[in-house]
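Hi Prof. W.,

I finally got the 3-dehydroquinate synthase prediction working! I wasn't sure whether to trim anything, so I left the full sequence exactly as given:
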Amino acid sequence: MTVPGTAAARPYDVVIGSGLAQAVTDAVAAAPGAGAGGVAIVHADALAAPAADYERALSTAGLRVTRIEVPGGESAKHTGVLNQIWEQLGAFHLGRDGCLVGVGGGATTDLAGFAAATWLRGVPIVQVPTSLLAMVDAAVGGKTGIDTEAGKNLVGAFHPPTAVIDDLAALATLPVAELRAGMGEVVKCGFIADPAILDRVLAAPAVPAADSPVIAELVARAVAVKAAVVGEDLTESGLREILNYGHTYAHAIEKVTDYTWRHGEAVAVGCVFAAEVAHRLGRLDVAAVALHRRAFAAAGLPVAFPQGAGAFDALYDAMTSDKKVRAGRLRMVLLDGIAQPVRGVEPELEVLRAAHEAVTAPPAGADAGDPA
Ligand SMILES: NC(=O)c1ccc[n+]([C@@H]2O[C@H](COP(=O)([O-])OP(=O)(O)OC[C@H]3O[C@@H](n4cnc5c(N)ncnc54)[C@H](O)[C@@H]3O)[C@@H](O)[C@H]2O)c1
Ligand SMILES: O=C(O)C(=O)C[C@@H](O)[C@H](O)[C@H](O)COP(=O)(O)O
Ligand SMILES: [Zn+2]
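And this is what came out:
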């Protein structure tokens, strides 16, 4: 699959398959500079074994290679870890004709991508996502960045990769709770653009096995949604905002829980929150709101945030850091129907509060609000 080029970026391929080690070496060879200035593999600690395999293959191809290990997960999206990467790139003398390779979940590809965007004011990166979430979303589209005290992803750059290698074999070692979290972004794509995703998830309510054809189909469908959008609007000046469906509330959940909620879990509740807002504005009917709860729950995801009960002010404060805010006004992506996203809706505070109450009340007779 190819992500179309824009005025600001070249087109690039997202290769989806199993056993794609050679594709990583080929992608580095095809990047501008072909890795001649050195190749630095930035990988999460849990991915040391595949990173070592890529290192061997790249060395065998005659390239100078180093590995930079970072902690897996959100805690690595910080200036301290980024600084260590910069120091190691300096010691390795990675040149403008060098290349980074990002290996890990979305936190690692966001971090490695930002290191690539900033080192020497920008060097190529080949992204090798190893979580479901990173394969369908984080590694595709060029949003890179880190978190700050003020909030999530507040420092970053648009820096598209030169290739993305989605090796589904990597999912074999991914903990099931992480696989489930990745379904949050997959189901989001179902609501904003591809209802066939919702049909698949509802037809078999369980997290699909990592090596199943269902996962392969869902990855292809979700990547197609993302590729089409970022191919039209890399820098989020318009259409790309639809990929942020559910994220206004999701990022607030992540911040107020100190990132103990996984991103994909928070996105699931954030989409239910957005549906509740849309319902109160007369945009979505009760059935569409219920469909949100059924689809995310079918994928094993939370559809409520009971811990947030009474915490509206803290969540609202976090929501005001949302990048879609303009002139101090919170702007949301909502739906006018399934696969009919609308951008730039400015709900009144009382609507937000009511939607918050609807998602913080524990669902009757269920415990679907707690992440695993
Ligand atoms: N840039 C974007 O467009 C974009 C899009 C969506 C999400 N994101 C970001 O992505 C991050 C979430 O990504 P995530 O859900 O992948 O979480 P993550 O990167 O935190 O990974 C979760 C854990 O799984 C481990 N892991 C990853 N792949 C593994 C594998 N194959 N085997 C064993 N362990 C593995 C990681 O090292 C980590 O400990 C968030 O920071 C979010 O903001 C960015
Ligand atoms: O690619 C995008 O654009 C998205 O909004 C995809 C989101 O799933 C992703 O979590 C993104 O990192 C959020 O970006 P932010 O600009 O709200 O920080
Ligand atoms: Zn997201």
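The first helix runs from residue 21 to 30. Does that look reasonable to you?

Thanks,
D.
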